[in-house]
Amino acid sequence: MTLRLDALGVVRDGRALVRDLSLDVGSGQIVGLVGPNGSGKSTALRCVYRALAPTTGTVWLHDRELTTYTRRDSARHIAALTQESGSELDFTVAEIVALGRSPHLRGNQALGPRETELCHRAMAQLDVLHLADRGVLTLSGGERQRVLAARALVQEPDVLVLDEPTNHLDIRHQIDLLTLLRRSGLTVVIVLHDLNLAAAVCDRVGVLADGALVAAGTPGEVLTPALVRTVFGVEATVVPHPLTGHPQLLYSLGAPA
Length: 257
Ligand SMILES: Nc1ncnc2c1ncn2[C@@H]1O[C@H](COP(=O)(O)OP(=O)(O)OP(=O)(O)O)[C@@H](O)[C@H]1O
Description:
CATH superfamily: P-loop containing nucleotide triphosphate hydrolases
CATH topology: Rossmann fold
Largest sheet: 6 strands, mixed
Strand content: 25-35%
Number of strands: 12
Bound molecules: adenosine-5'-triphosphate
Order of helices and strands: EEEHEEHEHHHEHEHEEHHEE
Low-confidence stretches: none
Strand order of the largest sheet: 6-7-8-3-9-10
CATH architecture: 3-Layer(aba) Sandwich
Helix content: 25-40%
Distance between the termini: 52 Å
CATH class: Alpha Beta
Number of domains: 1
């Protein structure tokens, strides 16, 4: 198994933020985590990219406990695009993207021709090549998000962890990024709020509520009106996408006052 969360628990200030969470992510699979605000999605992901040590349970990477990898080694395997991915450095876009190569380089070793080409390609794929010489602090939220996605790609991980990677993106760039993930062959764990995007991109979806996994399976198995009502407190009509067959959720606003 590429990635396995085994009975993860995270307790902070006496409160369980994640409870007994087990999830397998096979090679090349895209697994989504969905759930209401505060249900523990980001906390669970943070255990995978080692921003947080779980209180109980184990993360396994390629059948080895994650904690037995050096930080540098795990960064060669796992790249993260998260809410806390730093872009506060006053660097150019090209410099930020090149930082993705850090786990593979020694000291101040310069990028070779292959790595320069890799950075170029990732910037083109994320549509930020034209921004290469811009200071990252001058970018819009969506532009910055695409730069950080390019940085994660040049890390050449086998596991990519993404926390709400589409939240600043316009619809075209949302679709481009998710299509890129689908074609990448990477093993992906992705937190998404948009259940329709989750249904379109994920092979499997895990639903968190109050820190616990309450459902897991294919989008068709999991994203039912009953589940959406119970977990999100929302009435949804589920219809198959007319072209792809993926479940799509339709919502109605409450009646006007
Ligand atoms: N360091 C911390 N100490 C105490 N509580 C925390 C800490 N970090 C997160 N929490 C709480 O843990 C709960 C889960 O947070 P988390 O960020 O994992 O939720 P989430 O499902 O990603 O939410 P959202 O959809 O709003 O991003 C929240 O109630 C949050 O306030």
